[in-house]
TrEMBL record:
It comes from Tenggerimyces flavus. Coiled coil: none annotated. This is Aldose 1-epimerase family protein. InterPro entries: Aldose_1/G6P_1-epimerase, Gal_mutarotase_sf_dom, GH-type_carb-bd, YihR-like. It holds the Pfam family Aldose_epim. PANTHER family: ALDOSE-1-EPIMERASE, GALACTOSE MUTAROTASE.
Length: 303
């Protein structure tokens, strides 16, 4: 058995992808012969949440503590150095395949009530390839009998082409970003991007710039779509388009790491429903009533 479980290969036109049983993770996405995301080996444990599905909360919850419905909860601290509960509960779970066709795969997972999150969710993650790229959709349904707090994100590391993050340029239509504490990366306050190093609205090279921030006030099309483009010097690149009516935030992280293999090897770009610590702030928090569901979709394409 491989470390990431069963591998589900899909392909359409010039695109190919591999999704894993563990976490319904996007392990590989390629256009022709080039990678669009930084992946990992099938026999390797997923590093740094590469390609992970993040739910039922994205990013961090301070001290793993929150209150909901008049009750106080304590989550396990899986980021002990920062004393936070990080990236939800499903990235390491086994997901079941519901359907697998040449160009698509759908996986499901039932998240049972547990310590710190006593809510019952049914999750469905679908991946579909066509000539426009890879369309992804995560649906969360409240299968329990009480309201449930919820948030999600996609955690792929984008690859524009040759080189690393310092060789690429990011364009992101977002006019506000969330400042965070330097030690724990917990929210401080919202700041206008104008006049800061984090103004990517007209495109900005990432060379020498360290980013690990959530962005909002997104530029939207008439259909409510937001987009971001990451370009290499030769004009190749990758684009993410997503439904900003359900995901009004995007996390950007330049993957500054001590390990040479991972250091700035891909740009983490995460459409999100809410910013860090939303279980405490309530900002962007989704409250699922019994029987309700929440859907979010995004598409990754070659440029």
């Amino acid at each position: 058995m491989r470390a990431s479980g069963e591998q589900f290969e899909i392909a359409a036109g010039d695109y190919s992808a591999v999704v894993t049983e563990v976490g319904a993770t996007l392990r590989m996405l390629r256009y022709e012969d080039r990678d669009l995301v930084a992946g990992f080996d099938a026999d390797e444990m997923m590093p740094m949440f590469r390609g992970a599905v993040i739910a039922p909360w994205p990013n961090r919850i301070a001290d793993g503590k929150y209150e909901f419905g008049g009750e106080a909860y304590q989550l396990p601290l899986n980021e002990p150095a920062r004393r936070t509960a990080l990236h939800g509960l499903v990235s390491w779970a086994a997901w079941r395949v519901a359907s697998h066709e040449p160009g698509s795969v759908v996986l499901t997972h039932r998240l049972f009530p547990q310590s710190g999150y006593p809510f019952l969710l049914d999750l469905t993650m679908s991946y579909s390839l066509d000539d426009k790229g890879l369309t992804c959709q995560l649906t969360a349904a409240n299968a329990g009998d009480i309201e449930a707090p919820y948030g999600m994100a996609s955690h792929s590391y984008l690859v524009a082409g040759q080189g690393r993050v310092d060789d690429w340029t990011l364009t992101l239509g977002a006019s506000t970003y969330l400042t965070v504490t330097p030690d724990r990366l917990l929210p401080v306050g919202l700041v206008d991007v104008g006049g800061t190093p984090y103004d990517f609205r007209a495109g900005r090279p990432l060379s020498g710039l360290s980013v690990d921030h959530a962005f909002t006030d997104l530029t939207r099309s008439g259909a409510g779509l937001a987009s971001a483009q990451l370009l290499a010097g030769d004009g190749t690149g990758v684009e993410v388009v997503w439904d900003s009516t359900t995901c009004g935030w995007a996390q950007v992280h330049t993957a500054d790491r001590p390990e040479r293999r991972f250091d700035r090897a891909g740009l983490a770009f995460e459409p999100m429903t809410c910013p860090p610590d939303a279980f405490n702030s309530g900002r962007g928090l989704v409250v699922l009533k019994p029987g309700d569901d929440h859907q979010a979709w995004w598409r990754v394409s070659a440029l």
